[in-house]
Amino acid sequence: MRPRHPDPRRYRRHLARELDNVSLYRNLAETAEGEHREVLLELAAAEERHARYWEEKLRDVGATVPRSEDHRSSFVTRSLSWLGRRIGVRRLVPLLERVEAGERSRYDDESEVPTSMVAEERIHAEIVASMAPAWRSRASSSIRAAVFGVNDGLVSNLSLVMGMAGGQATNNVVLLAGLAGLVAGAGSMAAGEYISVRSQCELVEAGTRLGPDELAALAEREPVAFELLARAWGVAAPDAGALPPVAPAGDAVASLGSPLAAATYSFVAFAAGASVPVLPFLVTSGTAALVVAAGLAAISLFLVGAAISLITNQAAARSGLRQLAVGAVAAAGTYAVGRLVGVGLS
């Protein structure tokens, strides 16, 4: 790793990120209880130590050190703090884990950062994950289903509406196509999500069934693997007869969530996104409806992109603009196709 030149701007960026994390964990600790509160306060203390380090680096190069009380938290930090107060820390674990995952490699190119500080950043994600292991996968799936379901519905139905409008279809035809796309798309998403989660649950259940003969053979031929299996099942006995014939897969299955709930999340999320470009055609028609639909879709695309930044831990504005650009390209493409086909048919 090559030494990097002192750079006050880089030091301030690191300091701002650490102060964001201090603020986030302190805010979440205010609403947490018991062990969760202790873990969050410990994380806040660690991030505060890291912030002090960057303040010292700024002083070493003679730069002005920003006052921590004047720091304005980022959009992601404010959003996660707000969500923590509304839905609880346990349900927020998947997002916190992603935030910390983005922090793991932040200091990889900083040769002057102490090894202990780098190590702390790398284990924070595991500490966060340990707060609610049973919720981690399930909540993460629900969040992704909601955010990306809205996005899929918005982009696909906006493209459909723009394509029909480009083909010079009447208001009633555009409205019918939009509503049909909403129902068909939401139903397809829900069915696909249900089958996917149901299949995963069945796979986990099937994969944990071991008969007495299989357990005995495992204990004899692979004693180390058998001990690991026993520990994972919460059984301390060293013989195969002590293990149940079926692994306690309840936690693994529960972490996948309910297939029906997953299908419902997908249906509602897709329908919510798909309804945006259709609504204007219920109250007006022609160019006015098309302009309003495009405007509402543009705002919604940006907001969805900003919401995705909570999952990816990217800048909200950048993520929102990227999502807006992707949606605009898709809509423009289908409008152009609709225009060409419409002219050809006429």
Q: Any overview of this molecule?
A:
This protein has 346 residues and is an all-alpha fold. Helices cover 78% and strands 0% of the residues. The chain is built from 14 helices and no strands. The protein has helices at 8-31, 34-60, 75-87, 89-103, 115-129, 133-166, 171-207, 212-221, 223-232, 250-256, 259-275, 280-283, 286-312, 316-345. The longest helix is centred in the middle third of the chain and has 37 residues, at 171-207. The protein is globular and about 70 Å long.
In short:
The protein is mainly α. It has 14 helices and no strands.
Question: What features would you highlight for this structure?
Answer:
single chain
The percent of residues in helical segments reads over 70%
| Morphology call | globular
The ordered H/E elements are HHHHHHHHHHHHHH
Major β-sheet annotation: none
Q: Given the structure, what is the number of helices?
A: 14
Output the structural class.
mainly alpha
- Radius of gyration, in Å, reads 26 Å
Tell me what portion of residues adopts beta-strand conformation: under 5%
As residue ranges, the low-confidence spans are 235-253
- N→C terminal distance: 66 Å
Give average pLDDT, whole number.
Answer: 77
Task: Count all strands and give the number.
Answer: 0
